[in-house]
Amino acid sequence: MIAAARRAAAAAVFATAALAAPTHAYLKLGAVVEDETVALKWRAGTISYFVRNEGVPNVTAAEFQAAVQRGFETWNAVETAETDFQFAGFTSQQPFDVDDVNTIGFRQRQELDRVLATTGFTYIVSTGELVEADIFFNSRFQWTTAANGQAGRFDVQAIATHEAGHFLGLGHSALGETVREGSGRRVVAGEAVMFPIAFSPGGINERRLRADDIAGVSDIYPAQDFRRTTGSIQGRVERSGRPIFGAHVVAFNQETGELVGGFTLDDDGGFVIAGVSPGLHVVRAEPLDDGELESFFDGVTPEDLNFRATFPDRLVVVPAGGSSERIEISVGAR
Amino acid sequence: MNRLHLAAAAALLTACAGAARLHATVIVPADLPELVAEARTIVQGRVVSAEARPAPAGERGIETLVTIAAGEYLKGSLGSHVTIRVPGGQVGDRRQIVIGAPVLRSGDDVILFLGGSGPSVPWILGLNQGVFRIRADARFAARRERFTGETRVVETESDSVRSMAPGPAGAVPLAAFKTRIRQLVAEGGIR
Fold first, then answer.
1. Are A117 and A104 in contact (CB under 8 A)?
2. What domains are there in chain A, each with its CATH number?
3. B17: chain A residues, CB-CB within 8 Å
4. Hey, is the C-beta of A1 within 8 angstroms of any chain B C-beta?
5. Measuring CA to CA, which of A133, A220, A228, B141 is 20 to 30 A from A105?
6. Chain B CB within 8 Å of residue A4 CB
C-alpha cells in the first residue's frame, strides 16, 4: 500500500517545459507555444480556489478545507516569493472537471486507484495561459487532519502542501530517498516537499518546506529581493566529452546545510541551479536512480543513468546576486 | 581546496542528501508483484494512435484514448489491438494535463499493466507506474525500458551486452524482465 500510495508523478508534458526552459533549476511546469516554452504560472496576483463540499470518513469538508488552506498558506508565507492563494468557497464541482474553476476535493476514479493525490492543469494551447488547476484527493485512502497526524492515515495538510507546489507550477524534486520494505517502498529521507513519493501514513514531515522548495517557488514568483540576495550555480555534466541529459545536480551549502537540486536539461548537458544561498557549496552530479523516472521526465527524452555520482574537484563559490563560474563535471560510466 | 577538505565536504553532502543514499548501490526492487497481481492484462506492444476527447457523460474532463497494437500478452488477452483511457489531453485549444498521467505517442514501444472491470475501457494501473517504455539505447545499440522505476532494462541484441552488471539504473535484459513477469503470473502474482 505504501508504494501504491505515492502521489502522482509529474506530467509528461512538463518535461517539455523543463527541457525547453533550462535557464533555471528545478522542474517547472510549462507549455510549448509556437516553439517557445512558457512557464505555466499564474499571472494574476491573487488566485482563488474552491473546495468540494464533501468529506470522507474521519475528515469533514470543513476540516479538509482548513487543512488545504494551511498547505497553501505555507507557500504564501515564503518571504522570497510572491504568491497569494485564497479560499473562495465550497463547491459541488469535482476536481478535473474542465470548467475554469480551480477545485480541490476528494474523488474516486478507477484509473487513479493507486494515486494518493494529484494536480491537473488546463491551459490555452495557443497562448499558454493557465486557466484552471484542480487537485484530486483520492477518497479510497484513509485521511486525517489531526494536528499531529494519525497513525495509519495520510495527512491532508502535508499532501496538500505538496500538491499546492504543483498548483504553483513546480515539478518534482529528486531530493529524497526510498528503501525497499516488504512489498513496497518507504521514504527514509526527504529534503523537499516536492519529492514525489509520500512518506508513510501517519507522518507530517511534508508540511514543512525545505530549501529546495523555497528556491523553486521563489524562482517562479520572485519577490523583489530574491535575485539580489541569492545566487546561482551553472555548469555542465559530461561523460567522455558527451553531454549528459537528465543528470541530477545537487548543491550543498556548507554553512547553512541547505540542499538545492537541479537537472541538466539542455542538449549540451548544461544546468543552472537558481535561488541558491550565497557561500561555498559542494556540488554533486548523480543519476536519477530513485523514484519513478517519469516523475521527472516525459519518458520520451533519453535521460542518461549510466554514470557514477561525481563531485567536481573543488568547492563552488556562489555570490549574492550573481552566478558561480561555470563548472564542468566529468562523470565516469558505472 | 585541499583534497582532504573536499573529501570531507563530499561526505557531508552524501550524509545530508539522505542516509539511504548510502544504500543507493543496492537495487531497490520493483513493486512488480503488486502490479502483476493487480493487472487484468499485461501487454507488450506499440502505440498506433492517441486521440483526446471530452470525457464521457458524468465526467467533465478530457481523456485520451490510446490504441496499442498488441505484440505479446504476458497476462490476459484483449485481442490484436487494445484501446485504453488515459486522463488528460487536448480538445480544441484547451489542453488538460494530469500530473502523473503518461503521454503515449504513436510509435512508442511499451509494456502496459492494465486495470479494468467488467465491460469498461481498460486503464493503466497507477498512471505512469504501469507504463514500461522500450527504447533504443544508442550506446549499446540495444533496447531498454524502464524497470519499475528504479532499474533499467536493456533488451540485448548481443551477448556481450548481457555481460553488463545490473545495478540501480543499470542494464538488465528485457527478456529477464518478461520472464519475471511470467513467473509472477504463474505464481498468481504473489511473491
1. no
2. 3-218 (3.40.390.10), 224-330 (2.60.40.10)
3. 175, 177, 189, 191, 250, 252, 259, 284
4. no
5. A220
6. yes
pTM of the model: 0.79
Residues from chain A that touch B31, judged by Cβ atoms under 8 A, are: 3-4, 183-185
CB atoms inside a 10 Å sphere around CB B56: 11
β-strands B131-137, B109-115 pairing: antiparallel
> For the purposes of burial, counting CB atoms within 10 Å of the CB of A112, is it exposed (0-12), middle (13-18) or buried (19 or more)?
buried
Task: Give residue for cell 531530493.
Answer: A175
Residues in A touching B6 (Cβ below 8 Å): 311, 313-315
**Length of chain B, in residues:** 191
Which residue does chain A place closest to B26, by CA atoms?
Answer: A179
Nine-digit cell string for B99: 500530473
Q: Among the listed ranges A23-32, A135-144, B42-51, B55-64, which one has the minimum average pLDDT value?
A: A23-32
Grid coordinates in use for A140?
479510497
Residues B83-135 have pLDDT tens digits of: 999 989 999 999 888 887 888 989 888 889 999 876 778 999 877 778 887 76
Q: For an interface test with A, give the residue of B98, B109, B112, B137 to mutate (most A CBs within 10 A).
A: B98
Helix-helix angle A156-167:A61-76, to 10 degrees: 50
Asked if A263 and A304 touch (Cβ cutoff 8 Å), the reply is no
How high is the pLDDT of residue A178? 67
Site from A163, A166, A294 to mutate, B interface, most B CB atoms within 10 angstroms: A294
Torsional class of A51: left (φ above 0), alpha (ψ -120 to 50), beta (otherwise) = beta
Whether chain B has a CB inside 8 Å of the CB on A178: the answer is yes
Q: Which CATH class is domain B32-186?
A: mainly beta
Q: Would you place residue A292 in the very low, low, confident or very high pLDDT band (cuts 50, 70, 90)?
A: low
Mean pLDDT along residues A58-73: 97
Distance CA B89, CA A179 (A): 34
Q: Is A200 helix (H, G, I), strand (E, B) or coil?
A: coil
Spatial contact of B32 and B176, defined as CB atoms under 8 Å apart: no
3-state secondary structure of A317: strand
Residue A70 buriedness (CB in 10 A; 0-12 / 13-18 / 19+): middle
- CB burial class (10 A; 0-12, 13-18, 19+) of residue A186? middle
Q: Domain locations in chain B? A: 32-186
CA B162, B167, B173 angle in degrees (round to 5)?
A: 30
Please, what is the average pLDDT of chain A? Answer: 82
A75-92 mean pLDDT: 94
